[in-house]
Amino acid sequence: MRRLQILSVFSLSNLNSPVAGVHYLHSSPEMNLSLRILTAVAYVQVLLLISISNADSLTPNATPREKHGENYCAMYDICGRRSDGKVVNCPFGSPSVKPDDLLSSKIQSLCPTISGNICCTEAQFDTLRSQVQQAIPFLVGCPACLRNFLNLFCELSCSPNQSQFINVTSISQMKNNLTVGGIDYYITDTFGEGLFDSCKDVKFGTMNSRAIEFVGNGATNFKEWFAFIGRKAGLQIPGSPYAINFRSDADVSVGMKPMNVTTYSCGDTSLGCSCGDCPSSPVCSSSAPQLLHEKGSCSVRIGALEARCIEVSVAMVYILLASLFFWWGLKHKRKERNSTLGTKSFMNVAKGGPAQPVLGRKNENIPMQMLEDIPQITNGVQLSVVQGYMVKYFRSYGTWVARNPIFVLSSSLAVVAFLGFGLVRFTVETRPEKLWVGHGSRAAEEKQYFDSHLAPFYRIEQLLLATKPQGAHMKPPTIVTEENIKLLFEIQKKVDGIRANYTGSLISLTDICMKPLGEACATQSILQYYKMDPKNYDDFGGVDHAEYCFQHYTSDENCMSAFKGPLEPSTALGGFSGNNYSEASAFIITYPVNNAVDKESNETKKAVAWEKAFIQLVEDELLPMVESKNLTLSYSSESSIEEELKRESSADAITIVISYLVMFAYISLALGDTPRFTSFYISSKVLLGLSGVTLVMLSVIASVGFFSAIGVKSTLIIMEVIPFLVLAVGVDNMCILVHAVKRQQVELPLEVRIGNALAEVGPSITLASLSEVLAFSVGSFIPMPACRVFSMFAALAILLDFLLQVTAFVALIVFDFLRAEDQRIDCFPCIRTSGSLGDTDQGNDQQKYGLLTRYMKEVHAPILGVWWVKLLVISVFGALTMASIALCTRIQPGLEQKIVLPRDSYLQGYFNNVSEYLRIGPPLYFVVKNYNYSSESGQTNQLCSINHCDSNSLLNEISKASLVPTSSYIAKPAASWLDDFLVWVSPEAFGCCRKFTNETYCPPDDQPPCCSTSDGSCSVNGVCSDCTTCFRHSDLQNDRPTTAQFKEKLPWFLAALPSADCAKGGRGAYTNSVELNGFEDGVIPASSFRTYHTPLNKQADFVNSMRAAREFSSRVSNSLKIEVFPYSVFYMFFEQYLDIWKTALISLAIAAGAVFVVCLVITCSIWSSGIIVLVLVMILVDLLGVMAVLNIQLNAVSVVNLVMSVGISVEFCVHITHAFLVSSGDRDQRTKESLATMGASVFSGITITKLVGVIVLCFSRSEIFVVYYFQMYLALVLLGFLHGLIFLPVVLSMFGPPSRRVIVERKDDNKSYASPSL
Questions:
Q1: Are 550 and 528 in contact (CB under 8 A)?
Q2: How many CB atoms lie within 10 A of CB 1068?
Q3: For the SSD domain, which residue ranges apply (predicted)?
Q4: Distances from the Cα of 588 to the Cαs of 464, 480, 570, 632, 877, in angstroms?
Q5: Does the pLDDT at position 617 exceed 70?
Q6: 241 phi and psi, to 5 degrees?
Q7: pLDDT value, residue 370
């Protein structure tokens, strides 16, 4: 008798997620495809065909007799066989018969509920046994389910009371024999519910799904399950050869009653179902799954407005602080009006009174003008030791440079040229894993461990073909049409025809693709339902066949793929809801390609060559073909991101050049005097500006050359951003230096003017530059390589730029002023004109009090000096800061892949479509290190999830976590090689682990050599007839293999092919899940258990899923004392975001602390240093608030920008604060003087220069430039301007430090001296 043909179905575990974790960031995943193989049981409806009645006493022409009662059969023996080999029963009743002792013992071993007489022959029982062995591997993990399932068919096949619940309802004829055409099978709802409840949660690990999906077609209740079992199957289709109607309304009047054998609950401890297979068990329900990483958001409802708790708290704190501040302000104002003693006392001195209290004493309330009107009093500046030394040094140094400009300029350029020679070793790093993954990263180490001990992730080449919506706000139409499927065949033909040239050989897809078990590629496409052959389209039924396979991809042989595995529709379709696959609006075609650990191997280079040809084919041929059909096509290859990053290097060249030209034009105008037609060609500073820009470029070249010489690779960001950044920073100092020289009295010699100018602004320039260098240096501690290297290059470039400014640029200033004094034309210094110096320089007063300076002194400062304006400014800026604190909590970590790519990259559309269409998450592996499988260790039960496993085992905990996917981000229970191995060796799975008499491995009967591959015939009388099961129960220890048995049989299991007779074979499914190197010592170095994350659409989902997986692994590792870690291909790129806030806050704190220390060392004033840092912190907090409003994510790029903001913001504060510190008068007068002195320079030399360069970046083609450089830098410049020229002056006027000016009595015999001007 020919066995029923059932389907071998395969699951490519990793292919279930076509892009699972592959391009979620920017990365190149490398992991081999793991083949998952299982057998979908052809449901043992065939067992319903194994009893006919009274064959011994009835002839073929006899008429059936209906009788229902105890010890009477409704069917007995076999009357026929269909053309597809399925046996059918004779519709004749007879009394039950007593079996011999051997048959009785066989029946008891499989059907313990049947004793005494039976209604089956020995041949029928052998058929029953051979067929149920196909179902046992699915259910043996839960003995209660298996027992109930077997009872359903044991009672039907061999029960002595068969006629009480079986009624033949129709009769057919086959070869002159009457056969059963249909039956009613009466079963109580109690039994049906008990059966279903015991089996509904049983896992089938190989497919990461439930066994009911395969033995019950995904039934949700017992009635659906019975309806599926009872369907009459056509020829060559699995199922019953006649209809079976399951009913519960038996007619008791004729002696019938429904079958109601006792069912076993899966929670029955005596049958040992695991928590993974029976979560409703009392043992399991007592240990409910923990909610991992679930953080509720606190909110407060105020009327119709709902606000977050942090926002309400901040608002309350602000109201309290603002109220206290206004109360203090009003009180202080009243007190100030009554306090005029200081001024009156000084007026007595002015009228000739004694000046006894003033000698060597500070008095910041004395106006500067009054000091000038008193001949006996002069004033000086009491500087700190460091500042005093810097003033003396810069004055003498400036004088020396003015006398030796050629030597200074040439020596500076020589040093730069020497450093620039390092460019001969210049290289650019474009590999994503080298740019975005830090050295020593835990995720990188885990990836390396996974790749080296198990297998690297496979390469992904993908096409997404989608329909377009027919109108606004309309749902796109289905893509599952005949025209689109035929188009897909055309596309596939062209892809198969790709021949890429690699070192003279032609590479095709079949040369590099994954081939799990045969010669066919494991392509994930709905064309697999047609075996990838267009000829099968019409033969199989066209579109209807595809829609049929969407529901029966595991149970119909015609739906099997060309690579002999099932194709889950969710891996090849997109844009559907639930399981409505026919509504899908996208085809997802995935080509998994072999990967290698070594990126320089021939295998990898062959794949890269084919990928380039693949992308070229899509752009040249496939895109026009698809667009002509009014469809969209997005595409990607494994090497796409790296190639697009390389292309980005030239994408913004024009933008950068324009930025430099605009900056240069502004510098030329800003450095020159007010243009006058008669002298602009002399007073302009175009040549000086060009020279300054050149020095900036030289500083960048020297920085890149130095690091290249020591072997540090550059990045695209360094090449494009640092020149602009250093220019924006360097221009400030250029303007300040030139304006300081122009403020000096023209009557003084040039070397004195240069010396005085450097003495005036040198300390503040040094302070600002050192702060910037330190701030950038802090960024070098950020773990992300791209940002760390960027910070290193930038810090050195800014330091070199500062050194060039105080050397080469000062020398250039000397040359330029000599040119102007000698009446030589700018840009053409060899041409001299006639005229006088007065035409071009009308004295110090006009230069000092230009339009902007007059505005600062006469308009801006007086307005800020009004008391109520001060209160308003403090309140507004305080409100802005408090609001930004509340908004900071809305900033999400991450870096969208689309951001780092050019705007016109084809990957932009691809990533959009992936988010829109994909319905499955990336694979997640839980890797166990050093699993001790010896009998003494007990670790086997700590890991497995079948019967007798610990309730808190790893796999049971994973199963529990999958019940709360919103917090655990685990979608399914894990596929377990260990569970399947334990089932494979168990005596119940008698078709799996078998051995010949010589103790060698014997395959299942439906595999060679037991089954002939030439004619497909299988015979129990063949070469495998002498095979026996590997073990009996007595051979095992507590149903577990001993250490020696485990060691011997594990390689058998991993080499065993799955088939109909044993679906648990591990070959393909678990080939790369276990490392066998060294396992003979009783320890498996590495093994993995695969599951899936839930669909991850946002960057926060990736971060939270990784955090949840790590928290879960840590908890399980601590509980089991076994080292377990989670691995998914995207972890390496998202690890940085787990602690990105901590990294950001520590970096900013260090940067701000460095600025404070530098300010304190130079000024020796805690007061002024504290005010500078306060303003810096407010700028940073406000910048974070802007990031929240603009939805700018927190990542290494934005953290570096924030750290840079500390250094850049110093320039908006330090110059005005320093000017305030060394001026005299009361706080209002000193504020006015500092604004008049440095306000114009801060506005024109710092604010405008940065705005000019930043605005150009908005035209960049790279989104990362627009978001992280244009938007963030623009916000920084505006915030720095507002805080530096509005908030800081108000704070200084109210809470500023005492003046460093001191009043001294001038002796008559002493000569007057010029006070240092700072």
A1: no
A2: 25
A3: 652-815
A4: 5, 12, 9, 12, 52
A5: yes
A6: -75, -5
A7: 43
3-class DSSP string for 164-184: HCEEEEEEEEECCEEEEEEEE
- Long-range contacts of residues 938-943, Cβ cutoff 8 Å, at least 24 apart: 939/1120, 939/1122, 940/978, 940/982, 940/1040, 941/1040, 942/1120, 942/1122, 943/978, 943/1120, 943/1122
Chain centroid, CA 1284 distance in Å: 38
Collect all residues with Cβ–Cβ distance below 8 Å to 947 and sequence separation of at least 6.
141, 142, 143, 271, 272, 273, 274, 1039
Q: Is 1085 helix (H, G, I), strand (E, B) or coil?
A: strand
- Beta-bridged to residue 461, according to DSSP, are 591
Mean pLDDT (the chain, rounded):
79
> Half-sphere exposure (CA, 13 Å, Cβ side) for 658?
11
* pLDDT tens track for 901-920: 877 888 888 988 888 888 78
Supply φ then ψ for residue 738, to 5 degrees.
-65, -45
Residue 199 has pLDDT above 70, yes or no: yes
| pLDDT over 70 (residue 1044) | yes
Please give the structure tokens belonging to residue 61.
């022409």
Q: Bridge partners of 299? A: 308
Q: What type of residue sits at position 190?
A: T
Contact 1254, 641 (CB under 8 A): no
DSSP-derived 3-state class of residue 203: strand
Closest by alpha carbon to 35, among 517, 559, 554, 527? 517
Give phi and psi for 465, each to the nearest 5.
-105, 120
Question: Do the Cβ atoms of 255 and 68 come closer than 8 Å?
Answer: yes
Pair of tokens at residue 118? 């039976």
pTM of the model: 0.76
Helix (H) and strand (E) counts in the chain: 51, 29
Distance (Å, rounded) from C-alpha 117 to C-alpha 97? 5
In this structure, the strands spanning 177-186 and 243-247 are parallel
Residue 218 near residue 212, CB atoms below 8 Å: yes
Contact between 904 and 1206 (Cβ < 8 Å): no
Give the separation between CA 177 and CA 949, rounded to whole angstroms: 51
Q: Which of 74-78, 279-283, 1262-1266 has the lowest mean pLDDT?
A: 279-283
> Two tokens at 246?
């399951």
Q: Which two tokens stand for residue 39?
A: 């057998």
C-beta neighbour count of 787 within 10 angstroms: 26
Percent of the chain with pLDDT over 90: 21
* pLDDT digit string, tens, across residues 524-533: 999 999 999 9
Per the DSSP assignment, residues forming a β-bridge with 1144 are: none
Pick from 19, 212, 204, 1255: nearest CA to 636: 19
Distances from the Cα of 141 to the Cα of 258, 286, 945, 975, angstroms: 29, 21, 8, 13
Tell me if 1017 sits within 8 A of 1011, measured CB to CB.
yes
In the DSSP assignment, the letter for residue 235 is: T
Q: Tell me whether residue 1005 is exposed, middle or buried, using C-beta atoms within 10 angstroms of its C-beta: 0 to 12, 13 to 18, 19 or more.
A: buried
pLDDT band with cut points at 50, 70 and 90 for residue 302: low
**Confidence tier at 376 by pLDDT (50, 70, 90):** very low
Note the pLDDT of residue 129.
80
C-alpha distances (whole Å) from 905 to each of 282, 622, 725, 868 are 56, 17, 26, 54
Over residues 209-224, the mean pLDDT reads: 82
CB atoms within 10 A of CB 527: 25
Q: How many CB atoms lie within 10 A of CB 1280?
A: 27
Residue with tokens 């439930």: 210
Q: Per-residue confidence at 449, pLDDT binned at 50, 70, 90?
A: very high
- Residue reference for tokens 């033969």: 539
Q: Is the peptide bond before 1004 cis (omega within 30 degrees of 0)?
A: no
pLDDT for the residue 870: 87
Weakest mean pLDDT among 345-359, 505-519, 641-655, 1281-1295: 345-359
Name the DSSP letter for residue 215: H
Q: How far apart are CA 452 and CA 467, in angstroms?
A: 42
